[in-house]
From TrEMBL:
Origin species: Papaver atlanticum
Protein name (record): L-gulonolactone oxidase
Gene Ontology CC terms, in alphabetical order: membrane
Pathways involved: Cofactor biosynthesis; L-ascorbate biosynthesis
Annotated PANTHER family: GULONOLACTONE OXIDASE, L-GULONOLACTONE OXIDASE 5
Signal peptide region: 1-32
Amino acid sequence: MSSHLGKSKSVSQFFSFVLTCHLFLLIGMIHSSPPENPIKCSSKNNSNCTITNSLGVFPDRAICKVSNAIYPQTEQELIAAVAMASMNKIKVKVATRYSHSLPKLVCPDESPNGNLLISTMNLNRTLSIDNSTMIMTVESGVLLRDVISKAAKVGLALPASPYWWGLTIGGMISTGAHGSTLWGNGSYVHDYVVGLRIVTPASPEEGYAKVRDLDNNHPDIKAAKLSLGVLGVISQVTLKLQTLFKRSLTIVREDDSDLATRATTFGKEHEFGDITWYPYQRRALYRLDDRVSINKSGNGLNDFTGFRSTLTPALAVVRVSEETQEATGDANGKCISARVTTFALRISGFGYTNDGNLFTGYPVVGYQNRLQASGSCIDSSSDNLITACAWDPRIKGNFYHQTAVNLPLSKVKNFIEDVQKLRDLLPEAFCGLELGNGILMRYIKGSNVYLGTEEDSIDFDITYYRSKNGSTPRLFEDILEEVEQIAVFKYGGIPHWGKNRNLGFIGAINKYKHAAEFFKVKESYDPSGVFSSKWTNQILGLDQSGVTIVKDGCALEGLCICSEDIHCAPRKGYVCRPGRIYTSARVCTDINRVDSDSDISITTLVEEEDLGFSDM
């Protein structure tokens, strides 16, 4: 008894320490240090440059070197840049303000005449808003934040959007960014686009570059709306908006026993509904989110905790804690941290407030522009990194993998049941992903663009620990690798183009019925491949070398699927083995881990009861 009480006291102290750190993360700072420009150049004339993603590291950890970067401020300057590159056969890619696509979509191949980045940072103007027609035209570098706020000022709203507002309109539609709804036009931003202007290479007779003005009646727009940047540079986007409306949302926490069945119908019951799933805790958070009368009282605000500016010392403590848990194999500590994290988020309303200041409970009622997205960590001037966005690569903060796969509703039930079977075998293996707030499930309505999801689907979005050292295996690596391979291969899931590790894109293009139509437009717009790269050719199936990189340790970061032990980390006890329930999977398994040891999860639950948090 005394031994148990001593252990309970020890865990209580650790719990209190971790909770204190997470409460610091809940505090929104007035100031912040917005992320830097992802383009870094060693000379004042923007030459000898590098570019990376928002995390500072691409999935393959390669450094992308670029000869020159330019920042056009007008469409004419953009045309001149494309013409110069086309004439000189220079490889080009387009960069956005914060470079949030994790794969190497932004990295141009090196060529004899150099390579070029065209940044849309200064193409950031709202060109027109017509309140009577509800039509808005913006330049491609305008942030989602500004689309939302400018529209709201004239009583209009974009009905669907991602939850993070630090994305540009050009970047969103080019990678298939989305919110969560099966209603109306759906959740893809590109399905609210009614026109766009794109600058593409052209013949010498046409001056090496031309502007193509496309509307919804033009057949090529099905390729241009979601193009991965391989057709040219989008200069302007025209959106069809709606009259500004109000929403009412309530987040309900339930056990996950009927999640597999309920998930297939929930999106049809609530216009903006989504689900956050905590497999280890056997809980699911259902967001009941619908339009309400504009007269319903409430001025709610979404300032999501994870997108706020945060004290960098608190971020460092949380990161060091997880690194220590990984290094020592402390599954119990991860499970406690996960429950603390999700508890802290829940009691704070996930950053929602009822009046812009305080969260007093559900429902939260407010206007669409105040609830649909957030990202306050980019909204103020620098404070010398006293605070920052949690993933800013300049600090010791979040560093992660992200797996995001769309599954048609017809396959959702079986996928969830497979994950639950894995969870039942080894519950503590899922604590790590709950530190990233679990599995986010957003609804996607089928779209008619060539590279979009064709059926009504759920996007399963999982964020989980990544080591700063690419040769270091993760705790319970095999379990999440099996989840990933079940989604991608057993059920034929479609990867989000702007997320995922390399293996998520294996055979991806074969899952699109109209890929051939996309290739016809690509050949017409850019026959010389000025805007193509090795990576885009690989994910589009045009480079037979494929997306995988086979080398020692390649499976540890999803660069390959292991077929030999050396693809894992055999010297550290991680070897290639079949999956537990999906035996066609090949995963890196820790042979030193005692699979039958279920005391970890049982102990965790007992200790939390002692602490009074058994129902967190």
